[in-house]
Amino acid sequence: MKFTLSEIAKLVRGTVVGDATIVISGISGIKEARRGDITFLANPKYLSLAKTTKASAIITSLEVNGDIKKPLIKTDNPSLAFAKVVSLVAPNSIQCPQGIHPTALIAEEVKLGESVAIGPYTIIEKGAVIGKGAIIYGGCYIGHYSRVGDNTLIYPHVSIRERVEIGKRVIIHSGTVIGSDGFGFATVKGVQKKIPQIGTVVIEDDVEIGANVTIDRARFDKTIIGRGTKIDNLVQIAHNVIVGENSIIVAQAGISGSTVIGKGAILAGQAGIVGHIQIGEGAIVAAQAGVTKSVPPNTKVSGYPAKPHEAAKRVNACVQRLPFLYKRVKELEAELEKLKQILAQYGKTEDTQSQS
Q1: Taking Cα atoms as reference points, which of 210, 83, 218, 95 lies closest to residue 163?
Q2: Which single residue of 144, 228, 247, 297 could bond 280 by disulfide (Cβ 3.0 to 4.6 Å)?
Q3: How confident is the model at residue 159 (pLDDT cuts 50, 70, 90)?
Q4: Residue 216's CB: how many other CB atoms inside 10 A?
Q5: 235-293 pLDDT, tens per residue?
Q6: CA–centroid distance for 59 within its chain
Q7: Are 41 and 64 in contact (CB under 8 A)?
Q8: Which residue from 13, 26, 145 is spatially nearest to 81, judged by alpha carbons?
Q9: Cβ–Cβ contacts within 10 Å for residue 92, how many?
Q10: CA–CA separation, 65 vs 306, rounded Å?
Q11: pLDDT digits over 124-140, tens only?
């Protein structure tokens, strides 16, 4: 599909700078774009790419004032605007499941809302409730008495165990397991005895969960993922964890049991969080940080063990200088040894002179 730049500007409520009549026929990243494409610039540090890109137009923030000799659409939020343009210029042509596939296995006492779609070989156990407009792809499992909210989208091979609650407009990607047993064992005479995990998981509205994520059920109460939270692929969330609203958890992060994550917190890739602590509202845990104690609100921590980011940077700077410092210490040791020999020789000379 093709649109003029002015038509696109109306969609994203932006302002055109330059030729508003040019025709856009494609979308692409700023490095890969070609003539006829529209791209976007959200981070000012990539301003140099805006001067060399082959794109016909660029969506930018209002603050961009560099020497860019291309038509622009200036908006408050370039990333969000570009997402709208993607839907306009390159609409998704993939057909979602329609209706209920004849191979789906739906038990008794299951409640299905209007316009529900269930793909092939999906299993829905007794007492489950599927909200109106929900789409469940093939090969999924919905356990006994679990609830899936309205307009939720569940991709293939997702497992949702018994008594789990999924909110409205939730997106769950392939391979994710929600409601698996928490990792609870007690050592009795050297043998690990399993502690029953009889709680549940609550996923609130507008959450998105990536592929191959595992969210464990609580031991007694609830593991909770707050409204609007976005979880990347390959994340582990243990039993009784509470994640506040609109948080972001990036790939390979791991959160141990009974930890509380405040609203709007960000856990970067491979962050590891010990159990029974609190990550404050608006806090940022940097990539590969190992958090061993609670983090105050609106602070940034990094390193292992995690500490305030500025302090961690100073420690890391010192660590980077260790080879130089090691070499310098060896040189100083050699110089000290020479001084000792000189002093020893001087002492012998003094003794000889005193004896004579």
Answers
A1: 218
A2: 297
A3: very high
A4: 26
A5: 999 999 999 999 999 999 999 999 999 999 999 999 999 999 999 999 999 999 999 99
A6: 25
A7: yes
A8: 13
A9: 8
A10: 38
A11: 999 999 999 999 999 99
Count of CA atoms in the C-beta half-sphere (13 A) of 133? 9
Tokens of 223: 């593991």
First to last CA, the chain: 108
Residues annotated as catalytic (active site), given as ranges? 239
- Are 276 and 286 a contacting pair, CB within 8 Å? no
How many whole angstroms separate alpha carbon 149 and alpha carbon 132? 7
Residues in the chain: 356
Count Cβ atoms below 10 Å from residue 143 Cβ, excluding itself: 19
DSSP letter for each residue of 74-93: EES-HHHHHHHHHHHHS---
Least reliable range by pLDDT among 42-46, 146-150, 192-196, 313-317: 42-46
pTM, 2 dp: 0.85
Rounded CA-CA distance 48/45 in Å is: 8
The helix or strand, by DSSP H or E, that contains position 191, with its residue range, turns out to be strand 191-194
Place of tokens 């038990």: 107
Q: Which two tokens stand for residue 297?
A: 């609100």
How many alpha carbons lie under 13 Å from residue 291 in its C-beta half-sphere? 35
Q: Percentage of the chain with pLDDT > 90?
A: 85
Cβ contact 155:191 at 8 Å: no
